[in-house]
Amino acid sequence: MMSGSIPSPIPPSILALPPYATTSPSRLQALYSDISRQKHSNPTSYHSNVEWWRKALEVIVSSGLQTDGSSRLVLRADARLMERVRVQGVGKPLALGAVITELRASKALIPLADFLGAKESIYDPGWLPARIAAFVVGKPLWWALEQMGVVGEEGLLGGGSSRSNKDTSWWGEYVFVSLLERAAGEVLERQARRVGGVGDRLYSFDGFRQEFGSVLGAEGSLTEGDATVLLKFLERDKKAVLFDKEVIKFLADDLSAPREINGADRGILELRGAVQNLHAQVDELQHKMDECTLKAAAALRQKQKAVALSHLRLKKQLEDLLSKRLGSLDNLESTLLRVEAAAGDIEIMKSYESSTATLRAILGHPSLQKESIEATLDALAEVNADAKEVDEAVRIGAEVAVGVSDVIDEGELEDELRALVLEAEQEKQEKAELDQLAEAMATQATLEGAGEVPDSVPSSTTDGTRLKVTLT
């Protein structure tokens, strides 16, 4: 194990990059050692180490810190890469061979030649076995047997390492898929923000490199190799562009729009190139005129009248040429505008044609024929009539049922009402008699208090019969 801090690597900036900056010295030593045996003995640690290296290599490639510092999409794995990430006190990364092999198997890295030559998308499930088979062909026999599982990491007889330190089978150029997907996403997002006319979707190869140079975080334009890889991905895997090495055309979202590069596209691109060249000439002429003015002023300050006049005459000639170029530029820009409008009209008309054909095909369906429509509507009318009859029958039946239940004998109602009235009068009479009895009892209590007690007190029963109450 290491102790203390790691001395400055070569190059000095490598330890400042993630994930190096957050990795301890002891952890870094383990990562730089040969990790191939861990795949079976400690798979969790093995895959964790591979993931650390994936992030590290991604940063190295995207930062332009490879040996040549050019590509930001393609990893160049060889002895120069090992020297590039070599750390003093730790040494060279012996784990790179196993890491590259594992990243290839997971499609995080794809050999550049396979990527550019493949006809199928890299997302096609059937593409991976073919790629692995192509990679195995021509490799050492022991390596092929190991990949097929015939031998293990310990070799045929279980002794020694199956991958020596001098093994270079993993060297090569690899497309970094995560970086490629990120760059393609930024290109499509930026393109979506443009106006969207026919001309805005056309680029030359150099124009594409200049327009989207910043998507990889580099100043200037894309390298030719990165632009080729990016365009291949956008064309084959994203189905977003058409590319014929001269014209790049971003496809419209409308699926009915023409998906081809035609003569109008080439003409628009040529006109745009001519307009751009004229703009450059105008800027250059303006710059030369300014220089002539400055030189003439300097000559006058030095009392060199003849020299000043010479510069002014040249300026006059440049002004005449500038006027001609501006006239040509105005004509070309007007022409370009009309051509783009006409090309847009062509696309619109083709969309109309496609829509017409689609509508005609739909209207040609047997269900939409006149006879079929009439028959369907007649059947629908019959069904509605039947439903209406059923509804009326149900409603009438309900009314009949309600009517039967509502027949009431008026005589019974009158008898019930008279009974209720008599009951109410009887209750009233009983209440009055009870009040009279209570009053008599109260009078008796008063007389008893005065010593005068009558023999009896009149009372009544609930049936109206008067009774004598004997006082004791």
TrEMBL record:
Region (Disordered): 447-472
InterPro entries registered for this protein in UniProt: Snf7_fam
GO biological process: late endosome to vacuole transport via multivesicular body sorting pathway; vesicle budding from membrane
Tagged with keyword Coiled coil: yes
The keyword tRNA processing belongs to this UniProt entry's keyword annotation: no
Extent of the signal sequence: none
Keywords carried by this UniProt record: Coiled coil
Coiled coil region boundaries: 268-302, 370-444
GO cellular component: cytoplasmic side of plasma membrane; ESCRT III complex; multivesicular body
Listed PANTHER family: BCDNA.GH08385, CHARGED MULTIVESICULAR BODY PROTEIN
Protein name per UniProt: Snf7
Organism the protein comes from: Lyophyllum shimeji
